[in-house]
Amino acid sequence: MLVFVIFAPLLAGIAGALISSRLKSRTLSVTMTVLSVAVLGASMAVALAPYLELRWMFLHLPGYRVPFGFAAGTLPGWMAMLTALVNVLAQFYSLGYFARDSRQGYFQSVLLAFTGSMLLTVFASNLFTQFVGWEFMGIGSYLLVGYFRTQDNARYAASKAMLVTRIGDVFFLLAVIWSVSHGQTTITEINHHGAPFVAWALVVAVAAKSAQGPNISWLLDAMAGPTPASALIHAATMVAAGPYLLIRYFPVLSHSPGVLPALIIIGGATAVAAGVGAVGSQEAKRLLAFSTVSQLGMMVLAVGLGFPQVAWTLLVAHAFYKALLFFVTGVASHRAQSGLLSRLKATLGGFEFSVLFMVGALGVSGLPPTGGFLAKEALFHISQGSLFHMILDYTLSFVGGAYAARLVKSLAGKSRAPLAPISAWMLMPAVLLSLLVILNFIWHPWVTLPAISLLSAWPSILLVVSGGVAGILWNKPFRVFSGGLFTVSWKILYGLERMMMTIDSALSEGVWATRLAAGWMTGLVHLGGSGRARRYVLISGAALALFIIWNIRL
Amino acid sequence: MLALLIVPCLFMIILPRIPATWLKPAFVTMALADLLLALGALAPGNVIHVAWWPQLGLNLSLGVTPYNQPLLWLNALVLLSSAWTANRGNAWSPLSKGSIFWLTVAYVGVSLAFLSQNVLLYFVGFEMAVLPFFLLVRKDGGENRRVAAFYFLGFSAVAGMMLLAAVLTLVVHHVTGFHANHPVSVPVQFVVYLLLLATWAIKTPLWPFHLWLPKTHGEASTPASMYLSGVALKVAPYGFLLFSGILPAARHQASPFLAVWGGITLLAGSLLALGQRDLKQTVAQSSIASMGYVMIALSLGTRAGDQAAVLVMVGHGLASPLLFWIAGQVQKIQHSRQLDDLPGLYRKDPLLVTFLTAAAFAYMGIPGLALFPGEFGVILVALKHAPLTLYLIAPAIVIMAATWLRILARARFGGTETDGSFDSLSAVRQESWSGLWLSVPLVLVGLIPEWWIHLWRWGGLR
Question: Is-annotated flag, keyword Membrane (chain B) (predicted)?
Answer without folding.
Answer: yes
